[in-house]
């Protein structure tokens, strides 16, 4: 395969979810992603609580793909998947988890820019906007990078036309309505809520975009 062939081929994702935990992320990636192919999507039925002695019964060893997204909930399954990825040299993102060997942002929209994550890392993670302002209101928003659930894009119609002085608080509130994480979820280590975190990173992204707006097209 030549270098040009590698550039042309789609970046291949393998996604693991449990009881539908990866569904909205897969849908967001398919809708808003470019040059990304979800090669395989495993949605494991919810596993009973307790120790899983043989996680290989649930997770195939022939992972493949350029990047693995780990939305598994059972710690035995999640840790086993990360070990497999590390052994095969495949980067794995386990948002909201704390597993050595994995990239573990607080939320999917908390992923910073990292090398080796291809088009996924370029397009998904900490949100980035370009903003157009006209007559003191948000006239347009363009997503440069966003949450894999799609909320960064879905919130735009709720922000267009909002006065600039209200826009930042508005996007924080509206993102929390769109966010799929349970409102009662808190990280036991940091004590932070992923729901509030999602609102805050979008507020920060819009604030930065407003500080350096583009000129609206006439």
What does this entry look like structurally?
The chain has 218 residues and is an alpha/beta fold. Helix 7 packs antiparallel against helix 8. Strands 2-1-3-4 form a 4-stranded parallel sheet, sandwiched between helices. Helix content is 35%, strand content 18%. The longest helix is centred in the last third of the chain and has 18 residues.
Number of helices: 8
The CATH homologous superfamily name of the largest domain equals: NAD(P)-binding Rossmann-like Domain
Indicate the low-confidence ranges by residue numbers: 1-7
Record the strand order, biggest sheet: 2-1-3-4
Q: State the domain count.
A: 2
Q: Tell me which CATH architecture of the largest domain applies here.
A: 3-Layer(aba) Sandwich
CATH class of the largest domain: Alpha Beta
Helicity range of the residues? Answer: 25-40%
What's the assembly state of these chains?
Answer: single chain
CATH topology descriptor of the largest domain: Rossmann fold
* Termini Cα gap: 46 Å
Strand content: 15-25%
Q: Could you tell me the mean pLDDT?
A: 91
Structural class by SSE content: alpha/beta
Rg, Å, rounded:
19 Å
Topology pattern, helix = H, strand = E: HEHEEHEHEEHHHH
Number of strands: 6
Characterize the overall form: elongated
Q: Tell me about the largest β-sheet.
A: 4 strands, parallel
């Amino acid at each position: 395969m030549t270098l040009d062939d590698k550039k042309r081929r789609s970046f291949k994702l393998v996604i693991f979810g449990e009881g539908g935990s990866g569904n909205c992320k897969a849908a967001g990636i398919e809708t808003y992603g470019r040059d990304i192919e979800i090669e395989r999507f495993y949605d494991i039925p919810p596993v009973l609580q307790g120790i899983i002695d043989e996680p290989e019964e649930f997770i195939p060893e022939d992972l493949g793909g350029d990047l693995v997204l780990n939305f598994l909930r059972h710690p035995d399954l999640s840790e086993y998947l990360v070990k497999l990825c590390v052994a095969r040299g495949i980067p794995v993102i386990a948002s909201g988890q704390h597993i050595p060997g994995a990239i573990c942002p607080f939320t999917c929209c908390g992923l910073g820019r990292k090398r080796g994550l291809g088009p996924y890392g370029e397009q998904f993670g900490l949100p980035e906007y370009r903003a157009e302002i006209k007559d003191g209101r948000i006239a347009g928003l363009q997503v440069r990078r966003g949450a894999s659930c799609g909320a960064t894009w879905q919130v735009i119609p709720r922000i267009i036309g909002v006065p600039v002085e209200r826009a930042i608080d508005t996007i924080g509130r509206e993102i929390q309505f769109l966010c799929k994480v349970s409102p009662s979820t808190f990280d036991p280590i940091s004590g932070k809520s992923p729901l509030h975190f999602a609102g805050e990173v979008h507020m920060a992204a819009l604030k930065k975009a407003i500080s350096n707006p583009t000129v609206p097209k006439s």
